[in-house]
Amino acid sequence: MKFSQLATYLDELEITASRNELVRILSELFQKVSVEEIAPVTYLIQGRLTPFFDPTEIGMGEKLVLTAIANAYHIDKGEVAVKYSHLGDLGLVVEELGQKTRDSGLSVTEVAGRLLAIAGTSGDGAIENKLTLFGDLLKELDPASAKHLVRIPVGKMRLGIGDPTVLDALSFAKQGDKSLRPVLEAAYNRTSDLGLIALTFWKDGVKGVEKLQITVGRPVRPELAERLPNPEAVIKKLGLVGVQPKYDGFRVQIHKDGAKVAIYSRNLENMSLMFPELITATKRDIKVGTAILDGEAIAYNPDTEEYLPFQETTKRRRKYGIDELAAKLPLRAFIFDILYVEGRDVTPLTYEERLKLVEETIRGSEILLPAPLIKTDSVEVLTKELLDNISKGLEGVVVKRLEAPYTAGGRNFNWVKLKRHTSGELTDTVDLVLLGYYFGKGKRTAFGAGGLLAGVYDQDKDEFVSITKIGTGLTDEEWREIHRRGDALQSDSKPARVNSILTPSVWMKPEIVVEVMADEITRSPVHTAGQFDDNPGYALRFPRIVSFRGGDKSPEDATSVKEIMAMYQGQGQHRVAP
Ligand code: ATP
Fold first, then answer.
1. Which of 246, 314, 427 to mutate to test the pocket of ligand 1 (most atoms within 8 A of CB)?
2. According to the model, what pLDDT value does residue 207 have?
């Protein structure tokens, strides 16, 4: 396939807001690509060259791309910058500047290969090389192709295609319906690599996809916890359970492959640079050749047995000065699971068996510590554990079904979280995605936002659906912050994958995730969360923002419609007041 053909599809996808249409167009595109092309195309439509967890970056920010454009079209850099300030998108700038360029018929694989080569340049003269290589590529592409090309390095591929949409489209392309999505999704949960799945599917069919295994070096989509309102409900539903502290830190998935160690976050990003002491400890203390461990990293002082609050742990989320911070505020990782050891996938084992393996694997380490577990079928004991952990400054407990396997990417009652809460309120906060804002009246007008339209994620449909308007809980500074970040995310029309009856003054591309507390979930005809046929949707009563989720959650990690429905069912049952 020629890159220019792909660009035509990208143009079509860009103006499509309907999810079904996105799937249809994508599946038509997939049907036209060969075995060699399917992996690069799968990455490119999401603006990438490699899977999300791979840290490969082209390494050209806006400034460098702008210089490459000026060089390629022999135009003054200042002129390009002026055009950019008018058009607000470097893609549109090259589309205009490249009008006279003839397409030289480059194929998709060639363009992907050349971008990978640019990503691979390093060392002395790397910048010059990147500029030349990227400029050369631009000179060979027609305006529409060049438009999409420049959006890749600057992270502005504006298609908004989520992973479930890609999985549906792959199924449609081969099967004519979405019946293969569960098989593809299960493989995605084990490998997190859409390109690999697509390639295997094209090459070896469904059988090949089913054989894709968990392996060290590819993050596994983490198991997540369900909610229940109180210890009574937990024991009633699960009987004998294992109970562990719920640490409020960073989820870490540690991969050890001989001397190579990598750490992935909850949303599958490679975070190895953030945790030097965990990397060192894994290399030094873990004697097995290969392993995948699952745990929570938290700032912890073993002498005083003090856990530091989440805000302290999150200071790690930065690029510089990590070593100093690691010395001042060393982290520990409480390991609560193991997925793979010595070449073997151990996710089918029971939780008890896996926890025993955890203890054997990390024995002797003072940095990687096994999460303690007590077993009980008593409401009193569970209540006491919950209150004990809260008094130690932890979030609560996670209750686990002892005989359950590890469900990659699953949220079910094999794990249940119980947290601190105030009686009468929802037991938990929810994570919402901002969809737009309303112009404010009075004081807030100065900051450009008076209220926010927020939504949750519908996993089945890969859509963001509205659940509430939020007006309170933000300081003036935070309103400014929303305004600043929101400006870059503004969209002239309803963004792709957003489904809403309400129309805010300004739409925002769904990217910012906020943690919200509310009093109650109610039914509402004006919100689309959980709405179907004539049934009303769900809404939040008295929502207020508790915090901005700083990057550890992508919009697809926001609370799901399914969770909201379960929380709605759970309301009204009595809760323990710590
Ligand atoms: P929250 O915002 O409540 O942490 P979440 O959406 O990030 O929720 P949940 O699935 O709701 O994730 O809660 C499980 C999270 O709790 C895990 O992702 C993990 O980071 C953390 N956690 C802390 N201690 C444990 C433990 N002992 N076992 C499992 N998960 C734990």
1. 246
2. 97
